[in-house]
UniProtKB/TrEMBL annotation:
<dbReference type="GO" id="GO:0045197">
    <property type="term" value="P:establishment or maintenance of epithelial cell apical/basal polarity"/>
</dbReference>
<keyword id="KW-0677">Repeat</keyword>
<keyword id="KW-0732">Signal</keyword>
<feature type="domain" description="EGF-like">
    <location>
        <begin position="163"/>
        <end position="199"/>
    </location>
</feature>
<dbReference type="Pfam" id="PF00008">
    <property type="entry name" value="EGF"/>
</dbReference>
<dbReference type="InterPro" id="IPR018097">
    <property type="entry name" value="EGF_Ca-bd_CS"/>
</dbReference>
<feature type="disulfide bond">
    <location>
        <begin position="29"/>
        <end position="38"/>
    </location>
</feature>
<dbReference type="GO" id="GO:0005509">
    <property type="term" value="F:calcium ion binding"/>
</dbReference>
<protein>
    <recommendedName>
        <fullName>EGF-like domain-containing protein</fullName>
    </recommendedName>
</protein>
<keyword id="KW-0245">EGF-like domain</keyword>
<dbReference type="GO" id="GO:0032991">
    <property type="term" value="C:protein-containing complex"/>
</dbReference>
<dbReference type="InterPro" id="IPR000152">
    <property type="entry name" value="EGF-type_Asp/Asn_hydroxyl_site"/>
</dbReference>
<dbReference type="InterPro" id="IPR001881">
    <property type="entry name" value="EGF-like_Ca-bd_dom"/>
</dbReference>
<dbReference type="GO" id="GO:0048732">
    <property type="term" value="P:gland development"/>
</dbReference>
<dbReference type="InterPro" id="IPR000742">
    <property type="entry name" value="EGF"/>
</dbReference>
<dbReference type="GO" id="GO:0007157">
    <property type="term" value="P:heterophilic cell-cell adhesion via plasma membrane cell adhesion molecules"/>
</dbReference>
<feature type="domain" description="EGF-like">
    <location>
        <begin position="87"/>
        <end position="123"/>
    </location>
</feature>
Length: 246
């Protein structure tokens, strides 16, 4: 009987046959097998230890959870390790420039740019002058993270959008009314008063008595016609000054 058991080799898949009183036997199964004759594959994934949503892959000799066999736990994107217990640091070996900070995310990484830089890896300097922020023909100078406007004469402010008030210093004498122009001013004198300079140096007229017939206004406009290079807007303001001559 013993010889028969040994000849038949009833224990499968590497199981060891153990005789009992020469009349019966039992099988000691190899890892990964079960059943009376070790013919049933044991499903080790029933109580697996894979982490972070990993998929357990059942294998013949047990699911792999050692350093030598790390593939039994099929890790999701962003995780590694024998049991998928390690989170991958995507910022390791990143391509972000020195003008940025690498932000590790679940599936990849992103580059958070510092002020004044742009691009996928923050490798490009932002041109703040591209949007033409400076007004009134000002010159825009691009800076790192900002811009500077060089204003044309007569304008001020961060974007050169404010007209400078040349009447602020009260240049008109003897109770004259100051009218602010672009980079200039004009003095409207009271009836009977004289002014030797009606403009701030660009136009100089002889002393003239301001009367109600608009003589002074006409002379000023005529003088503007003789000059070149003066802002056209000043002439419009000058014409509107006729309301002061009544």
């Amino acid at each position: 009987m013993v010889i028969l058991f040994l000849y038949l080799k009833p224990c499968a898949n590497g199981g060891q046959c153990v005789l009992h009183n020469n009349t019966s036997y039992s099988c000691v199964c190899a890892p990964g097998w079960t059943g009376p004759t070790c013919s049933v594959n044991k499903n080790e994934c029933v109580q697996h230890r894979c982490q972070n949503g990993a998929t357990c892959i059942d294998e013949i000799a047990g699911y792999r959870e050692t350093v030598l066999c790390i593939c039994s736990c099929l890790c999701g994107h962003g995780y590694s390790g024998a049991l998928c217990e390690l989170e991958i640091d995507f910022c390791s070996g990143h391509l972000c420039s020195e003008h940025s900070v690498c932000l590790d995310q679940q599936h990849n990484y992103t580059c958070h740019c510092m002020l004044g830089y742009e691009g996928k890896f923050c490798e490009l300097e932002t041109d703040e002058c591209k949007s033409a922020p400076c007004a009134n023909n000002a010159t825009c100078i691009d800076l790192v993270g900002g811009y500077h406007c060089l204003c044309a004469p007569g304008f001020q402010g961060r974007t050169c959008s404010e007209n400078m008030n040349e009447c602020w210093s009260r240049p008109c004498l003897n109770g004259g009314t100051c009218i602010d122009l672009v980079n200039d001013y004009i003095c409207i004198c009271p009836i009977g008063k004289k002014q030797t300079s009606f403009l701030s140096g660009q136009v100089s007229l002889e002393a003239t008595t301001l009367t109600g017939d608009g003589v002074v206004l006409g002379k000023l406009i005529s003088k503007f016609d003789e000059l070149s290079g003066l802002p056209g807007k000043n002439r419009d303001v000058l014409v509107s000054a006729s309301s002061y001559i009544e």
